[in-house]
Records
---
Amino acid sequence: MASPPVVRFAPSPTGYLHIGGARTALYNWLYARGRGGRFVLRIEDSDQERSTPESEVAIFEGLRWLGLDWDEGPDVGGPHGPYRQSERLERYRQAADRLIAERKAYRCSCTAEDLARMRSASPDPRAFRYPGVCRDRAVPADVRHVVRFVMPATGTTGWDDLVKGRIEVANETLQDEVILRPNGLPLYNFGAVVDDVDMEIDHVIRGDDHVVNTPRQIQMFRALGRPEPRFAHLPMILGEDKKKLSKRTGTVSVLQYRDDGYLPHALVNFLARIGWSHGDQEIFTLGELVAKFDFDAVSASGGVWNAKKLDWLSSHWIRQTPVPGLADLVLPFLGSLGVADCPRERLEAAVALQRERAKTLKELASGIAFYFQRPLVLEAKAAEKTLDADALARVEALAQSLELVAPFDPGPIEAAVAEFLRSRGLELKAVAQAARVALTGRTQSPGLYDVMSVLGRDGTLARLRGARTAPRG
RNA sequence: GGCCCGUUCGUCUAACGGUUAGGACGCCGGCCUCUCACGCCGGUAAUACGAGUUCGAAUCUCGUACGGGUCACCA
């Protein structure tokens, strides 16, 4: 019905990209991409104390890893720049001057001490609101001052939230906020509004914690003579303890999930589904998310982070990833396990087998490392349990009967093993686990014939025969 | 404490006044089977509480309880 939306993600660069921010960014991105809109990235670094360039880079990196690209932003530019608040000071000054000229804002020379005094003298210090003592004082521009916004004292301010429905707030609960510091840096509410105006943002999609800021910002939009955007306030993501998500309750850094071996799309799928739904569907491709995402199905209540479900999604998407690409992705994780030399063909064969068995790339790597490790170190407990003298003898005899198998593929191998068992009157169970431990060093692995095939004849025979003397640890 | 928001299985959620309250993750059992995983089958488990409106309420209204957000010259 309307023209394509213009949305923004506006993090403050005071740390890494965390889970909550990532979901906010994702919902903005999905909304824009699903409707041919624009996604703007703006850096809100108006707090000089806390903002760092490193954080900005980390946020870019997190967004890029998730695949959330932006149409305008500090690094790519755009027609509404600059996109860093610290570079937009002139704009805030101009806007504030205009408001002052129109008597919609004023200079205030009250000091922090003045404020503290007034607060403690008020009947209920916790409910203290700045009483506007400088409103009519005509504080000269050359005395140290902040700029305060003239907030209406009566009436109500309300909006139809895309997620929460109608919200109304009595204006008497608002106060004359500081919008500009003495050093010219804007405060959050003002900077965001001026930027949203300049950048033509028409949908503000952000966390629940901003609901209280919305009426103030609406008043500022109106004072600047601009229509306010639509607002969508996303519920919080809670930790498994149902408290606000924090480091204490689990991993909150997006890049940490990358380093832990999660596929970015698994995280995207999970993030999309925490707080939004589409009937009974759990698995979504990116294209489906873009096509189906809308606010009518965004939940109004907070959602608890469910690491197990992320794992399930992650294992699903690992199984869906084509083997060659997956092999590329697993390489760095193999490297950090000390595996450097893995022939491409065997690597891909190993990945194809292990893909069904891994929740993360990290698990995938540790699941296939045994193919490439030399010497293979047998898990002590596994070896002790399955490789007694009889078993060792059987495993060595098995090696003997595999010597002439050709080609060394699962089918022929299985036939040779069957023949071996028949000639000795054994059941597969009698040798399988011992062979498995000899070949892989552990008690769990893909099917034996598949493992042997990947290992190749030489590798297979060497491991079966070397089990007796293989290092254990 | 003021203001604002929220409340369906343990968790994510479906249901948009009429369903035996559905699905998914997890968990438990079974099948498959050389182990593990995958897959398949089955099971466990929820409308916070109380009034009201209605022929009929998880759905609408009010209250209570509980939870959360926020009260900065942070964002």
---
Amino acid sequence: MAIHMYNTLTRSKEEFRPLEEGRVKMYVCGPTVYNYIHIGNARPVVVFDMVRRYLQYKGYEVEYVSNFTDVDDKIIKAAKENGEDAFKLAERFIEKFHEDTKALGVKEADEHPRVTESMPEIIEFIQALVDKGYGYEADGDVYFHTKAFPSYGQLSGQSIDDLRSGARIDVGEQKRDPLDFALWKKAKDGEVNWEAPWSSGRPGWHIECSAMVKKYLGDTIDIHAGGQDLAFPHHENEVAQSEALNEKKMANYWLHNGYIQIDNEKMSKSLGNFVLVNDLIKAYDPSVIRFFILQAHYRHPLNFNNELLESAKSGLVRIHTFAENVQHRIKETADLGESDVMENRIEQFKKRFIDDMDDDFHTANAITNVFEFVREGNRYLQEPNTSKRVLELMVTTLKEWGTVLGVSFVPEAELLDDEIETLIEQRIQARSERNFQESDRIRDDLKERGILLEDTAQGTRWKRV
RNA sequence: GGCGGCAUAGCCAAGUGGUAAGGCAGGGGUCUGCAAAACCCUUACGCCCCGGUUCAAAUCCGGGUGCCGCCUCCA
């Protein structure tokens, strides 16, 4: 089966067909870097990283670009409040973004372009729009003239008239039409600025993505993604700018993720109810956070709180425990190379995982599949005779799924120090002599030191807690 | 007002015409020297409400109710 994805542009699930066989050009709108990212900012970063990983798993070569908005009103405001240089502040939070997202298992983009480093392309883009009659200058500002672009509203599915009734013009703006939006903003006193034909100023918000997409990926790309709230006006405006200039479709597939909510309310920096990833990873293994995000379908709203995170943690531990128990069993299993019915079952699970992911990246169902695999695997572990080959296939399967989802399902093997190993040996000896008082003493002692012992039919196994 | 989304067990979350996945939490049991892990059973005569279509609806249609988001450079 081929990958199907929900396309905001057509409001339906479509089979994915790349522009070029075997290659995918993908652009994800990145953050405005004026603070640490919160869990809501993390969702698109995580889910589109998952999309990228899955495309790669399916054999596509993915060109993945995600920008940083490093010049913006909010950055300027935050810098002013801190008494900090705006560029330094942006730079600082770009570093924090990389730290936090790396912890969440997010791979770096192939390109992370920044507004401040793309100024020539942006100015050139605006000039070209003005030349073609899509942009006009007014007192140093430049606006995009939406009336000149008849299909405006197609992405968000709104009629121009309806949009116009809700739009407004702020004081000081000199738009010809309420729907027009800024391509270039003349600097106010003391603000950072760049020289341009119309004034010293800075770009409007939407133009950067149009310019960067063109620069790094070309006139038409396969996938353009971002948070649901970006569909309008941000992406709508990007489409208008890019298609007005290039006279080509900007992106074939538009993907938008749903919100994370706190107590069923939107989380945002402006509401002040946000949870920072940087704080969260101090209390939780970051893979728990990623696992939590992927347990829901990416387009659905997802409520967040600590109990839900605890619940996700318990589920992930269940998978980890299974992986560890399989590995213990591998060590205790003589080399029985024969396959058995379980091998066929594993192949079925692998197929189902792919079917789930092909269905609009349905990680919720894919993870359900992992849990069912774990239950059948645990049942298999209770059998007196197991095939080493099958056990090893279980581990590689878990690793494969973990790579696709970006969540490690198989914990790294750890080493014991000699003293602990000796104690475990002593306990095994004591148990064989039915000296349970001594064996329980050693078990309690090790528990204090964070080593949990479990006696099985195949011998004693241990794990750290 | 315009556009869109959501409503399924104590909590989370799948399922979009064929008789309610999965996880967490809870209860009971099996295994164990005792544990742990695991497995088994159990927890929605019902999927917001009211009508309708159908042999069959959580799923389709009509009408309500509630919540959320976008239309304000918030992912």
